[in-house]
Amino acid sequence: MKLTFTAGTWSLVLLAAGGASAQSVLKYVNPNIGTAHSRWFFYTPAAVPYGMAKLAPSTNGHYGNASGWEAVGYDTRQNSIEGFVHFHEWQVGGVSFMPTTGELRVKPGDLEGPATGYRSRFDRKNQVAEPGYYRVLLDNYGITAELTATKRVGFHRYTFPQSDQAHLILDIGNTQGESGEVTDARVRMVDATHVEGFVSTYPKYVKTYDPNGKVNMYFYGEISKAPAGVGAFTAAGTQPNITSAAGKGAGLFLNYKTKAQEKIELKVGLSYTSIANAKANLLAEARSLTFDQARAAAQATWQRELSKIAVEGPDEQNKTKFYTGLFHALLGRGIASDVNGAYPKHAGQVGQLATSGPGPRPEFINTDAIWGGYWNLTQLWALSYPEWYGNYVNTELQVYRDKGWFGDGLANSEYISGVGTNFVGLAVAGAYQVGIRNYDVNLAYQAVRANELNYRNRPFGSGKMDVKAFTQYGYVPFKENYKQDQGVWYKTDSTGAYFANSHTLEYSYSAFAAAQMAKALGKKADYEQLIKLSNGWQAILNPRSKLMQPKLADGTFAANFKPFEPWRGFQEGNAMQYTFYVPQNPAGLIAALGRDKFNSRLDSIFTASAKTGFGGGKEIDAFAGVNAIYNHGNQPCLHISWLFNFSGQPWLTQKWTRQICDEFYGTEPIHGYGYGQDEDQGQLGSWYVITALGLFDVKGFTDARPIIELGSPIFSKATILLGNQKKLVIEARNTAKENMYVQAAELNGKPLTNCWLYRDELMQGGRLVFTMGPQPNKTWGTKTPPPSVQ
């Protein structure tokens, strides 16, 4: 695949792995899937992988997001567009443009009454959404809007009808999506065809977790046609013939007289550090680039990145699930650094990234919490996109340098955890174990250790506020009164937590990861302390019920225990879900429950949950499955279906992972990732991708020598460009919907008798071949289970 420039024009020459044409991959990405309850980042087709510029239509963005996590932005059940927004990250959103005709309006208007503002109705028959490109007809105005992007530059092209009253509304100073309260804004015309400005916001989770923080967004735009007139507006009202506006509600309206089919184009450089850097980003990436050239380049980039994993087979629907999942995985985190290496530091400061380690200078990225990401996203990164795993680690180490602590969830260096447990150390340790080490390893270990053991002067936003209690007791004591304490919900401090059980299980897992890194680096005393803490789960397992049960500081179990009750002791889940949360030592959990009980209980859980779509049924809500017996729509359950590989019944892992792929995941706007589940920046999409390949690790690559578990590959052939540039071909002979069971397997001609192998063997590339069938082979893969404690 290549992008060529010939005789003054750009042409797209696209070759996917295996020689397929470009469209054979891009056509399988359907950004409209799952948009009934989609997160702010989720529907941003006009973007490149990990881009800062993520342009998209907004149906409800100005309404904001009071809870900070709810679905917002674009909803397939809504039929009017209020603008096209540039910034879409976790807790970050802003800078909306909208073309209109007729009477000037400067407010977006009500969702249910588009005529009250400048928003416009649209028909989805007149909408096109592809990786790197978006187009829609705005019915109220007869305007066709098109969007595309480079990494840091957004492109707009608006085709107007004939009109003496055409307008461009630049709505800068109002809430967009998850951005929270706007604290300041400014926009001004630099000259007849250039505009610049910024917006400062105070998102809900910044307010909660990093109260001295702020999120600044800057832009510098170039307009293809000078307006006939310019006016300004703020929350206070409208002023004609003014070319600048400042404060809350700030915006400009640009007036035009247009001919039929006249096109007006805009290029908008973006930055989180300064207007000057927004301009520098524009000049570096798009100085002479036209809209069509930018679109071609964006789609060539998507083709290259998506084609690193090329799947083949007769089922077109599965290909759509696969490539749409991969699209969201590559879209979910976005760069926050500029072309010159400037990045946003805490409280509006600007830092400068330095090259550290081999390879190019890493990018600084904005990121949702990594909670659960080690069961999908980091495994996908490690497989074929290691540069992004490296960027993630380097970003977290930069924050550690700047602020003294990791941040599980970052918006321009501000802590926005939302979870409060902080798995960054585990993800960093996993990167080290798979050989991603383009950073200061000693500094990385120092930060990992601190994340697990240090509690003095620990800021609230870094999470793990109950680390002292965990290290003191070996578990986190349950504090019933912390459900609400002085108006604060789900409090955590040095004495315990309301989410004590999930914290105990999570800290045990992350302590194991840190212990393995300590061992690799010869830190014997640290290893012994951490590996002891990794067994904290044993303290809260009730030997009678064989369930994880909240335990008080005095060592007694909490009364009034209800296994299906969500939240009480368990964040975003319940005891039935979290009892299987011992990924660092499945063998230990199996022994504690008894193998037969373990298998029968887990199998019955999936049998029951299959009737409700493996989670929340058809309820459109992120937490619909929080009190279910299993909830694939949220992070704590994502490894459970793979545990049968450890318990001697790998055919049940094959069965249930395949059924989850078939039934939980859909190809419709309403049924995408479940029905409106909580797709945290590409994690559920990533889970489908790696599971469909038949590859997984419940430990998130935290072992000293990581493994790969084998499941039920969906596609007859998958050709993977590995991160080390070697090629791996996965063949599944006789695979079909009913042929979900592995009969035999081999790697490079050598029979595999285990349902797992060491990851370093897989990363040598070659050919992994499965023979599939309709009935389980109950002798294959059962003799030697995957290693548990190392």
From TrEMBL:
GO terms for biological process: carbohydrate metabolic process; glycoprotein catabolic process. Gene3D superfamilies: 2.70.98.10, alpha-1,2-mannosidase, alpha-1,2-mannosidases domains, GH92 mannosidase domain. InterPro entries: 6-hairpin_glycosidase_sf, GH-type_carb-bd, GH92_a_mannosidase_put, GH92_N, Glyco_hydro_92, PNGase. Pfam families: Glyco_hydro_92, Glyco_hydro_92N. Residues 1-22 form the signal peptide. Its cofactor is Ca(2+). NCBIfam families: aman2_put. This is Alpha-1,2-mannosidase, putative. It comes from Hymenobacter mucosus.
